[in-house]
C-alpha cells in the first residue's frame, strides 16, 4: 500500500499541471477574496446608518464556490489523465489491486488538497479581512468563538470536495465530462437555489455537498440549517458514498 | 509459465476470444500470431487481468496477476507503447512505476541503459518517436526483472536496427529461462524470433506449433537447360508434379540429394538446385482463412 501511495505521489509531482492546478486553487481563493471583499465593502457603504449599526460581520467564503472547481479538477485528474494517456493499463499491471490504486490516489489527493486548501482558507479569510478593514468595515475578531473552526475548516472541506471530484473522475473517466459534472454539482445546482420550490431549496442548502459543507465555516447559528458538525458530516457522507460507488465500478470495469 | 484455459470474452455481440486454451512455456520465445482483430490484444489483456473474461481463466505462474504481491517482479507487460504521459520525462515515467513495486533507482538506470535511452531519459516522453516509445515500454516491462514477459506488437515502429536489437534481446531473455509471449500480425517477422507459434483467428486457436513444423520442405527447385529431358528422368524415378517452366523445374517427391544424384547419372547440366520451404505467409494465410 505504501508503495502504491509513493507511485501515485510520484505521478502527481512529476507532472507540471498538478502544480499549476494547486497554484490555481490558492490564486482563485486570493482573487475572489479580493473581489468579494470590495463588493462587500461597497454593499456596506450603501447601507443606511441604522443598517450599519445592526450589521454583524461574518466571514465571507463565497470564493470557495470558485476554488472548489479547481480542487475538484485536481481530484478528477487523478483518474481522467490516466484514461486520456491510456496509462491506466500500465498502472493496473503494476498495481493490479484496484482498491489499492483507488485508495492510493485518494490519499495523495487528500494530502495535497488538505495542504493547498488550508493555505487557501487562510488566504481567503485574511485577504477578505484586509480589504474590508481598509474600507472601515467591521470584521470578526480572531478571538471570537468558532474562529479556529473557520480558519481550519476550509482545508477539510476542500479535501472532501477534492475526493468527490476524484470519485467523479473515476466514474466518468473523461476530463471534460467529469469537469462538467463537478461544475454542475458545485456551482449550478446551489446557484439556482432561489428558483427552486422552498422545500427543494432547503434540501439543497442542508444536504448538497458544497452548501452543507459551508455550514462548517458559518458563525451564525441558523436553527433551520445543519450545524457545523452536521454539515461536515453530510459532505463526508457524499465523499464516502461517491468513493464507494467509484470503487464498485472501477473494481469490475475493463481498464 | 502462462496457462490460458477455455478463455472467452465478448465485446457486445462480437466474440473477441472464443474458448481459447494454450500454454506458454518458459525458456522459449512464443509468437502469438493472428490477423488484425483476431483477439490477440484482448487475450493479453485478459491474461493481465485488465479485462474480465466471460468464461475460462488465465494464470501466470499459477496465480492471477492480482494475487502476486509485487507483480512487476513476476510479469512485465508492454501493451501500448504510446501510453505515456506526454509531459513526464522517460526517467520519471519509469520511476512512477518502479516505486509501486519497491524497485530502486539503480534498476531504472540499468533498464534505461539496456534499451539505449540513457541519453534522452530527461526528455518528455511525448516527444519520443514510436520506436523510442517502444524502447521505453520495454524498459518498463523489464524494470522488475520479471520471469514472464507479455509484449503486444513490440516491433511496431522500430527501425531495422531496432528490430534486430529486439530480436536478439527477446532470444537472450528466453535463453535465460524466461517465458516470452510476443504478439504480431507478421508471420515472417515472428518466425525469425519465435521458437513456438500460437496462431489465432476470430478469437479461436488455429495452431499451436513450431516454426519448423509450419515451414515444412516443399520440393526442390532445379534450373537446367535440359528441363524437359530431366523432367522425364525424374518422373521415371518417382518424382511427382514436375512441370517444366522454361528452364525451371519444381520437383516434389524426391529429396534434394537424390535430384543431384540423378542429374549426375543423366549427365544433365544444372544451373541451380535449391530445396524449397513452404512460405510462412502462405501457411499463415492458409491457417487463418
Structure description:
The complex is a heterodimer of chains A (255) and B (289). Helix content of chain A is 78%, strand content 0%. Chain A has helices at 2-13, 16-46, 49-54, 63-84, 88-94, 98-134, 147-172, 175-191, 198-207, 209-214, 228-252. In chain A, helix 1 (2-13) packs across helix 6, helix 2 packs parallel to helix 6 and helix 6 (98-134) crosses helix 7 (147-172). By secondary structure, chain B is an alpha/beta fold. Helices cover 35% and strands 27% of the residues of chain B. Chain B has helices at 40-47, 90-100, 105-115, 130-142, 160-175, 187-193, 211-214, 227-236, 256-266, 280-288, and strands at 2-11, 14-24, 28-33, 55-60, 75-78, 148-152, 179-184, 196-201, 204-210, 217-223, 248-251, 272-277. In chain B, helix 3 packs across helix 4. Chain B starts with a strand and ends with a helix.
Main features:
A: mainly alpha; B: 289 residues; alpha/beta; Alpha-Beta Plaits; 6-stranded mixed beta sheet; 27% strand
Amino acid at each position: 500500500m505504501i508503495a502504491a501511495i509513493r507511485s501515485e505521489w510520484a505521478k502527481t509531482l512529476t507532472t507540471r499541471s498538478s502544480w499549476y492546478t494547486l497554484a490555481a486553487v490558492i490564486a482563485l481563493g486570493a482573487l475572489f477574496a479580493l473581489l468579494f471583499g470590495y463588493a462587500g465593502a461597497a454593499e456596506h457603504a450603501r447601507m443606511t446608518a441604522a443598517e450599519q449599526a445592526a450589521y454583524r460581520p461574518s466571514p465571507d467564503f463565497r470564493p470557495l464556490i470558485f476554488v472548489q472547481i479547481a480542487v475538484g479538477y485536481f481530484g478528477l485528474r487523478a483518474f481522467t489523465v490516466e484514461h486520456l494517456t491510456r496509462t491506466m493499463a500500465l498502472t493496473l499491471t503494476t498495481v493490479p489491486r484496484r482498491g489499492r490504486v483507488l485508495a492510493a490516489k485518494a490519499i495523495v489527493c487528500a494530502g495535497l488538497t488538505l495542504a493547498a486548501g488550508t493555505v487557501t482558507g487562510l488566504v481567503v479569510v485574511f485577504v477578505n479581512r484586509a480589504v474590508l478593514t481598509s474600507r472601515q468595515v467591521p470584521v470578526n475578531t480572531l478571538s471570537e468563538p468558532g474562529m479556529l473552526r473557520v480558519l481550519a475548516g476550509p482545508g477539510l472541506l476542500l479535501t472532501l470536495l477534492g475526493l468527490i471530484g476524484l470519485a467523479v473522475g473515476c466514474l466518468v473517466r473523461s476530463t471534460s465530462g467529469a469537469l462538467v459534472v463537478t461544475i454542475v454539482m458545485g456551482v449550478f445546482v446551489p446557484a439556482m437555489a432561489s428558483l427552486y420550490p422552498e422545500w427543494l431549496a432547503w434540501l439543497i442548502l442542508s444536504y448538497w455537498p458544497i452548501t452543507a459543507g459551508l455550514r462548517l465555516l458559518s458563525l451564525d447559528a441558523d436553527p433551520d440549517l445543519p450545524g457545523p458538525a452536521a454539515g461536515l458530516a453530510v459532505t463526508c457522507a457524499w465523499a464516502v458514498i461517491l468513493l464507494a460507488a467509484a470503487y464498485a465500478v472501477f473494481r469490475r470495469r475493463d481498464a | 509459465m502462462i496457462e490460458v484455459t477455455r478463455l472467452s470474452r465478448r465485446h457486445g455481440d462480437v466474440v473477441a476470444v472464443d474458448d481459447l486454451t494454450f500454454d506458454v512455456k518458459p525458456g522459449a520465445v512464443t509468437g502469438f500470431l493472428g490477423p488484425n482483430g483476431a483477439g490477440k490484444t484482448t487475450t493479453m489483456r485478459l491474461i493481465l487481468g485488465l479485462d474480465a473474461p466471460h468464461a475460462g481463466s488465465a494464470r501466470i505462474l499459477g496465480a492471477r496477476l492480482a494475487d502476486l504481491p509485487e507483480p512487476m517482479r513476476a510479469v512485465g507487460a508492454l501493451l501500448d507503447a504510446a501510453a505515456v504521459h506526454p509531459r513526464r520525462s522517460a526517467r520519471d515515467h519509469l520511476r512512477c512505476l518502479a516505486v509501486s513495486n519497491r524497485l530502486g533507482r539503480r534498476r531504472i538506470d540499468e533498464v534505461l541503459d539496456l534499451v539505449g535511452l540513457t541519453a534522452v531519459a530527461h526528455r518528455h516522453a511525448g516527444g519520443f518517436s514510436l520506436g523510442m516509445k517502444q524502447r521505453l515500454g520495454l524498459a518498463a516491462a523489464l524494470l522488475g526483472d520479471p520471469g514472464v514477459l507479455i509484449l503486444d506488437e513490440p516491433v511496431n515502429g522500430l527501425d531495422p536496427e531496432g528490430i534486430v536489437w529486439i530480436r536478439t534481446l527477446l532470444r537472450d531473455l528466453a535463453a535465460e529461462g524466461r517465458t516470452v509471449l510476443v504478439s504480431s500480425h507478421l508471420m515472417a517477422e515472428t518466425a525469425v524470433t519465435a521458437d513456438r507459434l500460437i496462431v489465432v483467428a476470430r478469437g479461436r486457436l488455429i495452431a499451436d506449433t513450431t516454426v519448423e513444423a509450419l515451414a515444412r520442405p516443399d520440393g526442390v527447385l532445379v534450373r537446367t537447360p535440359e528441363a524437359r529431358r530431366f523432367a522425364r528422368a525424374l518422373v521415371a524415378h518417382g518424382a511427382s508434379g514436375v512441370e517444366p517452366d522454361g528452364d525451371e523445374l519444381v520437383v516434389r517427391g524426391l529429396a534434394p540429394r537424390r535430384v543431384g544424384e540423378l542429374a549426375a547419372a543423366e549427365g544433365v547440366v544444372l544451373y541451380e538446385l535449391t530445396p524449397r520451404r513452404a512460405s510462412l505467409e502462405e501457411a499463415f494465410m492458409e491457417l487463418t482463412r
